[in-house]
Design brief:
Distance between the termini: 93 Å
Strand order of the largest sheet: 1-2
Order of helices and strands: HHEEHHEEHHH
Number of helices: 7
Low-confidence stretches: 1-47
Mean pLDDT: 82
Strand content: 5-15%
Length: 221
């Protein structure tokens, strides 16, 4: 009898464990397999390029990164690229995909929002120290990483840097910036609604030398 009672007790215990097991395991399995939602991924992607303050009625000299804290990168063929920690780019919130026809694709818009030389000359001098640039400032361009014609912010320090001359530049010849041609081609593609504005902005902010290829138009036509 004692043996029978022991067997019944073991069987009852097995039933109890078998009934509870799946219920306790279920929430653990759910937490392990949970995936981020599409909206969370979209928000993360949209936040990659900072948004600047936009055009100002009166511009003031903007503080620049600390002297020597920024470092120029170069491509395989020696073209200069900014330090992404100092100059990640910044967009103009007044320019959207919906209004490009009355902003960047409208003649005269960029001239109307460009900061005066009295402001940018002082910023350029300070930014040269940020990047440790010791060449002639006349030969370097104080460049909008995301150009005004692509909806870049006019005076956000994250969108401006002293861009050294490209390889082959003749000293004393002034800025020699092949990036300008890329900006013009991207602007044409955006204004033809061939490339979305945000894609062009992200591509030029990442690496201007590959921007046209990134948006799928290596020739810009």
């Amino acid at each position: 009898m004692k043996t029978r009672r022991m067997l019944l007790a073991v069987a009852a215990l097995a039933l109890l464990v078998g009934g509870c097991g799946p219920e306790t395991a279920k929430p653990v399995a759910q937490s392990v397999t949970a995936q981020p939602t599409k909206s969370a991924v979209a928000v993360h992607s949209a936040g990659q390029v900072p948004v600047g303050p936009g055009p100002q009625g009166t511009y003031t000299v903007q503080a620049q990164p600390a002297a020597g804290s920024c470092h120029v990168r170069t491509t395989a063929d020696g073209q200069p690229l900014p330090d992404p920690a100092c100059t990640p780019g910044a967009t103009n919130p007044a320019v959207t995909q919906a209004n490009i026809g009355t902003t960047i694709c409208h003649s005269g818009y960029t001239a109307s929002i460009r900061p005066p030389a009295g402001i940018t000359d002082r910023e350029k001098d300070a930014n040269a120290k940020s990047y440790g640039y010791t060449g002639a400032l006349h030969d370097a361009e104080y460049d909008h990483l995301i150009s005004l014609e692509l909806g870049g912010d006019p005076d956000d320090p994250r969108n401006l840097w002293v861009e050294p001359p490209s390889p082959g530049h003749q000293p004393g010849g002034g800025p020699n910036n092949p990036k300008d041609a890329v900006e013009n081609q991207l602007h044409e593609l955006v204004c033809k609604n061939t490339v979305p504005l945000a894609e062009a902005q992200s591509a030029i902010a990442g690496d201007w030398t590959t921007a046209l290829a990134v948006v799928g138009h290596p020739g810009g036509k």
